[in-house]
Amino acid sequence: FMSKFVGAVTTGATHAIRKPLAAFHAHSGVRNLSQNLGSRTPVHGGGALVDRMVSCEKERAAQVQSCRGLSLELSERQACDVELITTGAFSPIEGFMSQQEWLSVLKDMRIPGSNLLFGLPVVLDTFRTDIEPGARVALTHKGRVLAVMDVQSRWHPDKAFECQASYGATSLEHPGVRLIATERGPTYIGGPLHGHALPTRVYPSTTPAQLRARLPADKDVVAFQCRNPIHRAHYELFIRALDAPNVGPGAVVLVHPTCGPTQEDDIDGVTRFRTYEVLKAELDNPRVQWAYLPYSMHMAGPREAIQHMIMRKNFGCTHFIIGRDMAGCKSSLTGKDYYGPYDAQDMARKHCEELGIQIVPSLDLVSTAEEGYVTADEATARGLTIRKLSGTDFRRRLRAGEEIPEWFAFKSVVAALRAAEKP
Predict the structure, then answer these.
(1) Are strands 221-224 and 319-322 parallel, antiparallel or unpaired?
(2) How far is CA 300 from CA 109, 119, 262, 343, in A?
(3) How far apart are CA 147 and CA 137, in angstroms?
(4) Cis ω before 261 (30° cut-off from 0)
(5) What's the CA gap between 59 and 54, in Å, rounded?
(6) Closest CA to 340 of 45, 7, 19
(7) At residue 91, what are phi and psi to the nearest 5 degrees?
(8) Spans in the chain with pLDDT lower than 50
(9) Is residue 338 within 8 Å of 316, Cβ to Cβ?
(10) pLDDT digits (tens, 9 = 90+) for 273-290
(11) Are 78 and 293 contacting, i.e. CB atoms less than 8 angstroms apart?
């Protein structure tokens, strides 16, 4: 089996030529969304927001008893998926996908029956051999029952095919391939979930229903996704998105970072959460809303951009910022990018009208000594002095306690990162 995953790197889609920003906005989706949606944004597929949580304590107890002692302890990644299913973030799905659904999403990015778009399959893997279709199993996390699953499907997936379809790669140099090949068990099981509880974590997570109730109902909501601490360039990017031509007046930006597991060399979710909290307090801006997403990153590039758009629509957002090389990754051996810098934007632009969420392509911003942050094109045209600090140099300065310029990073974020490194 492992021999299938050690071949040459496959780079995915061909690198695209960047489109001018004005032309991109002209094709960014349904222009009249900003007039009537806000937190009333319909969920993906137009039905009701999925809510699989069981409120009755007696019913929960009866469901656990009906499992007859059969239980499955979840990993952190799996616990994230259970929460996103049971609270409706993955609407319209109501459980882990069956073999037919898994295959359809891989081949066509479509849920069979409804034909709705879906970027990546949501599956439950196991090393267990005693869980068969027809069984009912309690899904536990740290010994606590999060959900009860009615098992309807069980199969042994072709993981090489799954990796090629999901990531455009089958080499272990891709972090998503490593996840499927080395972390997941050999068997997948599918079926609907009955939610009993949400995972207990350091960071709080807000359900789609809770966030929809909090967001303005009559204004645009622009979602900003990230998986790293927010530095000055990120801030300038999402603040300026509020002035994009397809965003209505009075809009708010929702900073909605993923705090679940990501790739191996990323900063851990708890530390990221603490950097977000100090920055939220520092900014104290009513036009910047914050919430935390318990999602496990796949680094799947364009397909993952679709997944994020679907989730943010289910959370009530009208717009989604698509960054350069969103959800992209590099070969762990060669450092070569698996996806082109604008592949995710191209995929999002292709499907945004069908999804009913507008996209805001991120500006290519640089810091200059004379004018602060401007677009790279403006800096070049005006001959401005561009200031640069590499990620490697930033990490070196962070560890050494050396000064980090404020044009690059917020002092509060730097302090939180340094505090996390102390024993």
Answers:
(1) parallel
(2) 13, 9, 11, 11
(3) 9
(4) no
(5) 7
(6) 19
(7) -50, 140
(8) 1-38
(9) no
(10) 999 999 999 999 999 999
(11) no
